[in-house]
Amino acid sequence: MSRIQEFEAIVRPGGTQAQPAPAARTPAPRPARDRLPALDGLRFAAAMSVVLFHFMGQTRWSMIDIWGRPYQETFPRAHQYFAFGRLGVDLFFLISGFVICMSAWGRTPREFFISRVTRLYPMYWVAIVVSAAVIYLTDSPFGHPNPRLLFANLTMMQRPLGVDNLDPVYWTLWPELCFYLTFSVVVWRGLSYRRVVVFCGLWTVAAVIAPGAGIPLLTLVANPTSAPYFIAGMAFYLMYRYRSTPLLWGIVAMSWLLALHFLLAPVGGSNNWDTWSPWRGWLILAVTVFFALVAAIALGWTRWIRWRLLTTAGTLTFPLYLLHDVTGMTFAHYYGDRMDPLLLVAVSVAALVALSYLVHRYAERPLALAMRRSLNTAAFGLQPPAPRR
Predict the structure, then answer these.
(1) What are 3-31's pLDDT values in tens digits?
(2) How far apart are the first and last CA of the chain?
(3) Residue 350 burial by Cβ neighbours in a 10 Å radius (0-12, 13-18, 19+)
């Protein structure tokens, strides 16, 4: 169409300009980016907070005794601060809502399935092999569980199967997996601003009614205590991809309130007050800071951060999280009474970061690439293959 024709198309006969078309309700998306270094750095910080919690912040109820005396006596000053490291898991969930929504955008259900399977299972299986070797071949403080537990854990379905986790940190994988499974319905329908908002609303309702509904399946799938973080993360991604709106801020505010409700609940929430009862104000502040940090990324305030080291740290987060507990705590168990505690923690954490890099570089990545190539060429249809001749 020529410029004259374009001009005539928007101007009515007689020189009266036509009324402009109504603006779309959904704001225009920003250019997508594959990696956000600030988000990678925040994810690594969350993993490190959990690691340091297990080394320095646990309480007397812990079944894993690595120091031969209470943690509070081993780290009398630092313990009260590192005890908050357990909240790093909540930050994980918040970031996960953002990242999964970002990585799924524009992908087909097949592509989404392959990306999630190759992201979770290769490193998870490697971690199980490493942890099982430590547990069954050494005098580990984690005992020697029935091998049946090992087989159930390899499926990542141990929670619905009613089986204990081989490594206590694996409990976070079920909420993640439920998020992927339910969100895949939206991916199947095609991701859009409206559908993600509706999904956030439906999940919020499910998380609210699940605790009092008396329906175990609903509670198992909705994960009420974790859901607010995933939901807020998705809303933050919509802010990042489009722009902030009162509707999205409303979703975030509701998620923040529900997150605090479940965290501060006297029973049945995300915290066991019999084992850890800090001042409530610090808990409110910690969760609020988590939301504020992700909000800063969503609003583009961290676009100036381009450090490649943060991206590298982001790739080590999953290996570090999965490997640190059984491996690190067993190492500390052997040397807890032979070295200065702070020196042992420093050596252990440095060794775990190095191990995470080696495992990621030489085990997780090659296995994930091989699995991705295999799944990309696999037939996902329900039609039977050609019969043998």
Answers:
(1) 444 433 333 333 333 344 444 455 656 54
(2) 59
(3) exposed
